[in-house]
Amino acid sequence: MSSWKEFLYKKVRVITTDARLFEGKLEGIDNATNIVISNCIERIARVKGTDDKYQQLDMGLYMLRGGTVVCIGEVDESIPVDWENLTGDKLKDTKNPL
């Protein structure tokens, strides 16, 4: 596992246990993987076979609880993404039923 410190103050994407995608500048992280993201947006992609439209929700300064974070990755802005035309299968959540 890499150190989270290498992502501090960089643009990252975060996937959560309920299959949500957040993007913004990583401002802080603790040992429990609680994170703070500035200029945060939530990206909601279109699901294949539906009439859904891509959505981008401005969240501002946002905190995510560590228990909901599945992965964090640095954004490579040299690779363009056409969010308007991107489609995919609906993701299952990663929560374990008790």
The oligomeric status of these chains comes to single chain
What order do the SSEs take from the amino end to the carboxyl end, as H and E?
Answer: EEEEEEE
Low-confidence stretches: none
Structural class: mainly beta
Report the sheet with the most strands, covering strand number, pairing sense and barrel closure: 5 strands, antiparallel
**Beta strand count:** 7
CATH class: Mainly Beta
Shape: globular
**Alpha-carbon distance between the two ends:** 27 Å
Q: What would the average pLDDT be, to the nearest integer? A: 87
CATH architecture term: Roll
Q: Provide the number of structural domains.
A: 1
Characterization of this structure:
The structure is a single chain. The chain starts with 10 loop residues before the first strand and ends in a 10-residue tail after the last strand. Strand 2 and strand 3 (35-44) form a beta hairpin. It is globular and about 40 Å long. It has strands spanning 11-16, 21-29, 35-44, 46-47, 55-64, 69-74, 87-88. The chain has a single domain, classed as Roll (SH3 type barrels). The model has no long low-confidence stretch (mean pLDDT 87). A five-stranded antiparallel β-sheet has the order 5-3-2-1-6, with no helix packed on it. The protein has a two-stranded parallel ribbon with strand order 4-7. With 98 residues, it is mostly beta strands. The chain is built from no helices and seven strands.
